[in-house]
Amino acid sequence: MRLIRNIFLLALLAMGAFYLVEQSNLSPGETIDNISKVVREKENEIGTKTVPEKQPDIPLEGDLFQWIGKSQEALIEELDEPERKEQSAYAYTWWVYTDHTSQYIQFGILDNEIVTVYATGDDLDTEPIQLGQAYEDVEEQFPFENEVTYSEAFSSYTFRLNNDDLEKRPLVKGADDVFIQTYFDTFTNQLSSIRILTADTLLKHRPYELEYRGNLPNEPDLTDEQWGEVEEGMENQIFDITNVLRYQHEKSMLEWEDDVSEVAFSHSKDMEENNYFSHYSPSGDGLKERLSVEDIFYTTAGENIAAQYPDAPAAVEGWLNSEGHREALLEDDYTHLGVGVYRFYYTQNFLTIP
């Protein structure tokens, strides 16, 4: 998925390309610019690079920020057992806590240590900022920069954020090598969700252009069976996060539909295995044809697809910030949702079923 060579690497992991099928009659909708993942690699060089200056740490006061580094026993003592545990593509296990409406949190645990947290919804303690807060107010607490640096021993890293990154998901360095991704809803100009993660976890995800000296964590290298567990987890996460977003926007909750999820999964798998990215397969079949093969009854349907996002929360945040995909996420008339994930290809199929 990504290329790595020797000492220097610039990797641009853009927000993933995605499209939306027109909801009423399933004809092709307006095409959005295809911003698929691009990897740029420097030729072999011999040279030196100045180690970036250490940036000042930002104090993190809220309860949610304090979980990084704590054990799963501490998590159980405070929050009880999670609703479910799901594998990630990056060695840690997600512990998911949600009420399926107003609140959603998932904790990533590796070797009995919390290394990342993703959260969205209401009433979360994230001082000195709060979900729903305006971009300008958050920026007063967390000054956003085009470059965020990190050094460890003889290694140094510079995350380079383009204008799109700064608008939608600025990166902030907190204390003790903890980073915060602040996801914004650009349609409301408000903080939509946050992700807290250790430096090593951020380097595994590589969601920004990166220049570094030293080593990077290994890419995901999973068996088919392991991928199957990861994919099922991401499908559940996309479903839950979608419903929490709908609740926040006063929309009805969607029901899970197994048959539609199989249709969505088959499309994600077909795109990955046949190296294309489109609502239409090389044979010309679209969502209408895929649903008809399974004899699925519906009155209206729509589809969101995405590729090369590092995980499910990132994919949903990407859809939220694209007008057509946002319309599908928040469409009043939809009643059911099927989600299918294969590797890093994501498909949502929305239906209205009387």
Automatic annotation (TrEMBL):
Pfam families: CAP, CAP_assoc_N
Source domain of life: Bacteria
Domain SCP intervals: 240-349
Record InterPro entries: CAP_assoc, CAP_dom, CAP_sf
Gene3D superfamilies membership: CAP (3.40.33.10)
Domain CAP-associated residues, every copy: 68-208
Official protein name in the record: Uncharacterized protein YkwD
